[in-house]
Design goal:
globular; alpha/beta; 7-stranded mixed beta sheet; 2 domains; 8 helices; Rossmann fold; 5-stranded antiparallel beta sheet; about 30% strand
């Protein structure tokens, strides 16, 4: 790993296709392109700096007390750090295929060492999910290589394997890019693999769209119930859950009373 002097927007660390830059107090991870994969504000290393990572946490509206979570793709470790720091009742497992990403995340993004609530494995995420193993209350997928979702993490077979590893009332969360040429195809694969229901949420910054898929039908939640839950979660975690509810209203079938979960009976 080569190190560089810190400068605005210039590399801090470089491990081939994986490199780190800093600009205006924000450190960012790049994998295979200049696209920012993950960011950490140096003054607040455990906050979720990027809007899409905060939006992925909207799964708590439907699964508010997850005991066990799987993260496919580590990146700079933003989600892993947030869950580890802010959700003491949750055990997180992370699978990351690239050992350079793990090394850089630990050295430059303050990803903590493994303990009883956080395990990071260097392995193929698709193969890991396809194997028999413990169930999860949520599976969060954020596995990009350059400018598109890794092919192995965008197939119907992968999403069916995810459904098989979810506990009752478990949720799959997938970070998608609206500009990805396979966006429509990938979303269709998720919907097919999860007939119990799916939802989409646009991140605050245009481009990222978060897909939520449910192992079991969540019903059609009422807006007043979602808004009450959002206010409680916002007070607990400091994330914009009330905005997430508005985003769900804008991108999914609904009426004035409730949100219709696509595929729900």
């Amino acid at each position: 790993m080569k190190l560089f002097s810190r400068w605005w927007g210039r590399p801090v660390a470089d491990a081939g296709s994986v490199y780190v830059t800093e600009k205006f107090g924000v450190r960012s991870l790049h994998i295979g392109s200049d696209t920012i994969q993950s960011s950490m504000r140096l003054a607040r290393p455990y906050d979720l700096e990027l809007a899409y990572t905060r939006s992925m946490m909207a799964f708590l509206l439907f699964q508010p007390e997850p005991a066990r979570v799987l993260l496919v793709g580590l990146g700079g470790g933003s989600l892993a750090k947030f869950i580890h720091r802010r959700m003491p009742g949750t055990v997180s497992e992370v699978v990351e295929i690239n050992p350079d990403v793990v090394a850089i995340a630990r050295r430059f993004f303050q990803v903590p060492a493994a303990d009883e609530r956080l395990v990071v494995r260097v392995c193929d995420g698709a193969q890991f999910v396809a194997r028999a193993g413990p169930g999860y209350d949520a599976i969060l997928v954020d596995g990009y290589d350059g400018d598109s979702l890794v092919e192995a993490l965008s197939s119907r077979a992968f999403y069916e394997a995810c459904r098989g590893r979810l506990n009752a009332r478990g949720a799959l969360v997938v970070n998608l890019w609206g500009s990805d040429r396979r966006f429509t195809e990938t979303l269709a694969c998720i919907e097919t693999a999860f007939p119990a229901g799916t939802l989409c949420l646009p991140a605050e910054k245009p481009g990222n769209i978060i897909a939520f898929a449910f192992r079991d039908p969540p019903g059609n939640p009422r807006w007043d119930e979602l808004e009450d839950r959002a206010r409680e979660l916002e007070g607990r975690y400091g994330l914009e859950f009330v905005k997430f509810v508005r985003g769900l209203r804008n991108m999914n079938r609904c009426d004035e009373r409730c949100l219709y979960v696509s595929g729900a009976a």
